[in-house]
Amino acid sequence: MGFEIVARDGAARAGRLATAHGAVETPVFMPVGTAATVKAMTPEAVAATGARLVLANTYHLMLRPGAERVAALGGLHRFMNWPHAVLTDSGGFQVMSLAGLRTISEEGVAFRSHLDGSRHLLTPERSVEIQRLLGADVTMALDECTPYPAERDAVAASMELSMRWAERARRAFTERPGHGIFGIVQGGVHAELRERSARRLVEIAFDGYAIGGLAIGEGQATTFAMVEASVPALPEARPRYLMGVGKPADIVGAVKRGIDMFDCVLPTRSGRTGQAWTRAGALNLRNARHAEDPTPLDPECRCPACTGFSRAYLHHLTKAGEILGSMLLTWHNLTYYADLTAALRSAIRAGRLADFSFGGAAP
Amino acid sequence: MGFEIVARDGAARAGRLATAHGAVETPVFMPVGTAATVKAMTPEAVAATGARLVLANTYHLMLRPGAERVAALGGLHRFMNWPHAVLTDSGGFQVMSLAGLRTISEEGVAFRSHLDGSRHLLTPERSVEIQRLLGADVTMALDECTPYPAERDAVAASMELSMRWAERARRAFTERPGHGIFGIVQGGVHAELRERSARRLVEIAFDGYAIGGLAIGEGQATTFAMVEASVPALPEARPRYLMGVGKPADIVGAVKRGIDMFDCVLPTRSGRTGQAWTRAGALNLRNARHAEDPTPLDPECRCPACTGFSRAYLHHLTKAGEILGSMLLTWHNLTYYADLTAALRSAIRAGRLADFSFGGAAP
Predict the structure, then answer these.
(1) Strand (E) positions, chain B?
(2) DSSP β-bridge partners for residue B241
(3) How far is CA A181 from its chain centroid?
(4) CB distance B324–A39 less than 8 Å?
(5) Which of A187, A307, A320, B40 has its CA 20 to 30 A from that of B323?
């Protein structure tokens, strides 16, 4: 899986990830398409925001419709009619947050489906196999997402287990052109564990490196400190992915610290609850102050919500619980995130990241 | 409001309604846009189905966001970003089906909002005023939708009240180019009451004539009998609208009996519950037999659901409760209805309506 760095500005990089389903410019934000759909969006609309890489969730898809079924139907790209690149997570995070009766062992994690109670075993090898069946361009190694807060010894043991799983996942991965597997740095909020984890993954040698187990309540300063502890141990020439991050200011700060890739449910989930991210900051469209406002949500935005409708109309849709409200605000928020990362790429290429601002996202 | 008949085939007509927001080819099916949105559809998507006239509900809009507010925001077309024609109902039907504590008098109907319990009075004059504030191309006169079944005397008295209201609505209507007001034939399932009602409306002289209070449980044969009782009393040169109808076969049968316009929640509502109308008949996408089916929903359909996705994917979305399932199936169903009515127009122009068939909609 090719990755080319085209510009640098301080620790930040602008790059290009070459996948089997096209090139992806970095820094990149990946819309979350949990169940083989970015919620409330057609694939054409997702692409219209500028997105060329989406994330899909292994845990959800292995349970419904099932990885073998997706494979029989031609793989995830064809199933969801998405011609661009797909990254799948390992399933580990959502097993821990959604599944029932979890038992973690050296072998993997046994759990019950939250949908029907059926029993499943997710091992590093099975996770890689599922992601191959789905047809992921980028596969993630199975890790244990260590809870926060946790004792240092427990965090260290959990990280070491994740590293042994990472080695098994790497071995199980079948090399194919334009496809790659990323390892995931763990280690909680302990800088030396993060560094040790990063070094261990580099020894195993992955196509890219994720930093996981953050943005789960530790606060932005700690998140950034853990990024700073991990990045120096990672190879310059490989992409770096900060998982589950985040708010616009989190993304700007992480890009400045050398991160290339992001995913977060924030723009999609908040779009379904009336929350919009704009160049003037975050807005709650449910607020009555928008009820008679004829102005667009964000006058600088190119999305259909901003070019076709007033804040008053978006307020009305949100109050009335209309699906179109979720559709338009999701479209807007994903456009905002796409334009934010495009602006970050431009700033890096221009060597002007230090004074970067993007409306409310000035870090 | 101009109406030109361009072809006839038996009692059926192909025509063109000239509104302030463009021409509408008839027979026409109007998608229902209750709260200033055709649920789960962008206006661009609605137009892409071929629709050029949508229905919006006065009852819903008078309560939220309010007619005066919509007027202050530039009217319904601008509010919902729909550049084509809009027909608004009178509010009467939904007052009877949704509102609380209704009291009908000669003056109008007093009721409480189902949203917040607030008190309102809907009179024939206020209904016309609300529809003018909304900016409707086609205004409907307020009627009392007689319950079914009901005693003949009660039906007659209700119809006579509706006729007095129709006269008041006609007087309250402000003539504007490209705008018109339709009266509504009532009379339950009694042919002579229907005929009397139609004659009374023609004396008042409307821009078009609707047949209301049908498709509420009386059965297709009775619906058609009431159409046959009403149509001969209506002027040839004016459009005829069968309200709240219906299934594809209902539409085909009514067109053959001289009806030009239709509306129904069926394609939109059923799209949100996994039901699809196809040339091979109706399908429930929730059914497990679609789970592994790689074929399109309707191979002859031009909509995004049929050209981009498999039945297996639509089944998955429906089972998972994904918004995209509602979006795609609504888009498909509205495309089906638009193509059905386009095929009816072609058949009338070709003089071949007698052997009309459209997949499962052969009457």
Answers:
(1) 2-9, 12-19, 22-26, 28-30, 53-56, 85-88, 100-104, 109-112, 119-122, 138-140, 180-185, 208-211, 240-242, 261-263, 275-278, 281-284
(2) B210, B261
(3) 15
(4) yes
(5) A307
- Residues of chain B whose beta carbon is less than 8 angstroms from a beta carbon of chain A are 35-37, 39-44, 64-65, 69, 72-74, 79-81, 291-292, 294, 304, 308-310, 312-313, 316-317, 319-320, 322-324, 326-328
Average pLDDT over all residues of chain B: 96
**pLDDT, tens only, A230-260:** 999 999 999 999 999 999 999 999 999 999 9
The reported pLDDT for the residue numbered A145 is 86
At residue A100 the predicted structure's pLDDT band, cuts being 50, 70 and 90, is confident
Query: B74 contacts in A (CB within 8 Å)?
Result: 294
pLDDT at residue number B279: 94
pLDDT at B362: 53
Q: Name the token pair of A207.
A: 């196509």
Residues in a beta bridge with B304: none
Check CB contact under 8 Å for A37 and B317: yes
CB A286, CB A315: distance < 8 Å: yes
DSSP A180: E
State the ipTM, two decimals.
0.97
Q: Which residues of B are tagged catalytic?
A: 89, 263
Does the reported pTM lie above 0.90? yes
Percent of chain B with pLDDT over 70: 99
The Cα diameter of chain B in Å comes to 60
Look at residue A318 and give its three-state secondary structure. Answer: helix
pLDDT at residue A96 above 90?
no
* C-alpha count within 13 angstroms, C-beta hemisphere, residue A36: 35
User: How far apart are the C-alpha atoms of A211 and A218, rounded to whole Å?
Assistant: 14
Cβ pair B162, B144 in contact under 8 A: yes
DSSP one-letter code for B32: B
Rounded average pLDDT over A80-85: 98
User: CA nearest B304 in A: which residue?
Assistant: A42
Grade residue B147 by pLDDT with cuts at 50, 70 and 90.
confident
B45: its two tokens = 């998507």
Q: How far apart are CA B89 and CA A156, in angstroms?
A: 67
Contact flag A312-B69 (C-beta cutoff 8 Å): yes
> Model confidence over A322-356: pLDDT tens digits?
999 999 999 999 999 999 999 999 999 999 999 99
For B304, which of A35, A37, A42 is closest by C-beta distance?
A42
- Per-residue pLDDT reduced to its tens digit, B267-304: 999 999 999 999 999 999 999 999 999 999 999 999 99
CA distance A47 to chain B (A): 14
Q: Do A324 and B42 touch (CB under 8 A)?
A: yes
Helices B191-204 and B220-230, axial angle in degrees (round to 10)? 40
**Whole-angstrom distance between the N-terminal and C-terminal Cα of chain A?**
32
> How far does B292 lie from chain A, in Å, by closest CA?
7
Please tell me whether residue A22 adopts helix, strand or coil conformation. strand
* Residue B58, pLDDT score: 97
Distance from CA of A318 to the nearest CA of B (A): 11
Chosen for mutation from A324, A328, A332, A334 (greatest number of chain B CBs closer than 10 Å) is A324
Q: Is the pLDDT of residue B363 over 60?
A: no
Partners of A328 on chain B (C-beta within 8 Å) are 42
Residue A273 has pLDDT above 60, yes or no: yes
Which of the 8 DSSP states describes residue A363?
Answer: -
- The percent of chain B in helix, strand and coil, each rounded to the nearest 5, is 40, 20, 40
